[in-house]
Design brief:
The structure holds two protein chains of two kinds. By secondary structure, chain A is mainly α. Helices cover about 75% and strands about 0% of the residues of chain A. Chain A is elongated, with a radius of gyration of 25 Å. Chain B is globular.
Chain lengths: ~260, ~200
């Protein structure tokens, strides 16, 4: 897969979730993205049928969808070479393959992009902001945003583009090829680096002159860490602390000394 | 004039929110980014970045996987920053929980938008079956505009309401003291949440 057709499909992936719906999720976005390929392969009657095929259920991580688009394009090529009388079986197989591939790609992509790269870069960005402010660089926020957005989008766009070619080259062998790609290793390394940075940030909050002070902050952080183990979200704990603060103040306690 | 500027900022917030699912996913809708950008547009970049960063860290573990509808971080950041800036600005310590409440209140509307899209796709599919050429541009435009309009109308109602109700509550001293306490504790809570989300599994 190459040239303007690849570029057109890659650009269309930016609208993959525009028509996201509960019933069939990314189906319309996927059909829209692959449409130029279908138009280049099928005549009118078969084209309607091919478009309908891609309006079936589909859902995956949006950047990783390019792998599925490439593989689906390859399967369309193969289907085009099958006599019409024997096409039904191939169509069913292609639909099943796409659905299973979507789930596998979602697991890899969610873990890499949502679960590792984005949190790591957020923590990096906030740390960078604090360091720049320490050196009196003002305004620091545009640099901090750049530290988040530039590497993130470079990675996401690279996957969106290159995965189309990989998917097309591998076709039905794509799951085997994916298993040998280092997604999990990269995600693990990013999470580890992010944890180290976040722990450094946590230390910084203990000694923040605008904070509660080292001892209350350490105590509060320890209690919160305990609650997190029971899947109570950080924002829920914040709301609990706010409620506690208001109730204490209403009862006449002065928590801020 | 200030209220007109607030309406324009709500429109900018609605445009940024489209990045969350509808267009691109360039992370412009993330609280960290939308908070800082809206703060800069409203003349308070530091408050915008601070509120955005806190919300980003709070919501780090909440993933938009499958059909999950977590609290809308983009709406929360927009509401927090816009209540802290512009006419009748509130203290950021109080804007933060108000933003979270507004982001939470948007969930049923988001669910409705997604349901409405199912209808759009069904109509599109029946036209396709009849052999007519697919109107992709029409489908995508309606879908994106629907989301933009819903977010804009919601923010135009929610932000002034939060300013008025929030301002009214702020007069009560326990709220001021409780919010100040929670504001001082917020960075540590947010970072603990981040450590927990990031720790290798």
């Amino acid at each position: 897969m190459r040239g303007t057709l690849k570029l057109e499909i890659a650009l269309r992936t930016l609208l993959l979730q525009s028509v996201w719906n509960f019933e069939r999720m990314q189906n319309a976005g996927f059909a829209f993205a692959i449409d130029p390929w279908l138009e280049s392969r099928w005549e009118k009657r078969d084209l309607v049928r091919a478009r309908e095929r891609h309006l079936g259920y589909f859902n995956t991580q949006p950047y990783m969808a390019s792998f599925a688009l490439g593989a689906a394009a390859r399967l369309e090529d193969l289907l085009a070479g099958v006599p019409e009388s024997r096409r039904k079986e191939g169509e069913l197989r292609a639909a099943k393959f796409k659905e299973v591939l979507g789930a596998a790609l979602a697991a890899l992509g969610d873990s890499l992009f949502w679960g590792a790269l984005r949190p790591f870069l957020v923590v990096l960005s906030v740390t960078f902001f604090i360091v720049l402010r320490q050196y009196n660089i003002d305004p620091a926020w545009p640099w901090a945003l750049a530290a988040f957005l530039v590497p993130y989008n470079a990675a996401a766009l690279w996957v969106r583009w290159s995965a189309l070619g990989h998917g097309y080259e591998q076709g039905e062998k794509l799951p085997i090829a994916l298993a040998s790609m280092p997604f999990k290793t990269v995600a693990r390394a990013l999470r580890l680096a992010g944890t180290v940075l976040a722990l450094a940030l946590l230390m910084a909050t203990f000694f923040d002159p605008n904070g509660l002070g080292p001892v209350p902050t350490v105590g509060l952080a320890a209690v919160c860490a305990g609650f997190l183990r029971f899947r109570i979200a950080a924002r829920e704990m914040y709301v609990a602390v706010l409620t506690f603060g208001i109730a204490s103040a209403a009862a006449g306690l002065n928590l801020l000394g | 004039m200030e209220w007109l500027k607030l309406a324009a900022l709500c429109a900018a917030a609605a445009a940024l929110e489209l990045d969350a699912t509808a267009v691109g996913q360039f992370m412009l809708s993330r609280p960290l980014v939308s908070g800082a950008l809206l703060g800069a547009l409203a003349g308070q970049p530091l408050a915008g970045f601070t509120l955005g960063a806190l919300l980003e860290l709070f919501l780090m573990g909440e993933l938009p996987v499958g059909g999950a509808l977590p609290l809308n971080g983009s709406i929360a950041a927009s509401a927090a920053v816009l209540t802290a800036a512009g006419p009748q600005p509130l203290d950021p310590a109080w804007s933060l929980p108000l933003g979270l409440a507004v982001g939470w209140a948007f969930r049923p509307i988001e669910a409705r938008i997604r349901q409405a899209r199912s209808g759009l796709v069904s109509k599109f599919e029946s036209k396709l079956r009849s052999g007519s050429r697919p109107d992709w541009l029409g489908l995508l435009t309606i879908s994106v505009l629907l989301e933009f309009a819903a977010v804009l109308v919601f923010l135009l109602c929610a932000v002034p309401l939060a300013k008025v109700l929030g301002g009214w509550w702020w007069r009560w001293s326990p709220v001021r003291e409780g919010a100040a306490f929670a504001w001082k504790a917020a960075p540590a809570l947010a970072v603990v949440g981040a450590v927990y989300s990031l720790k290798p599994q």
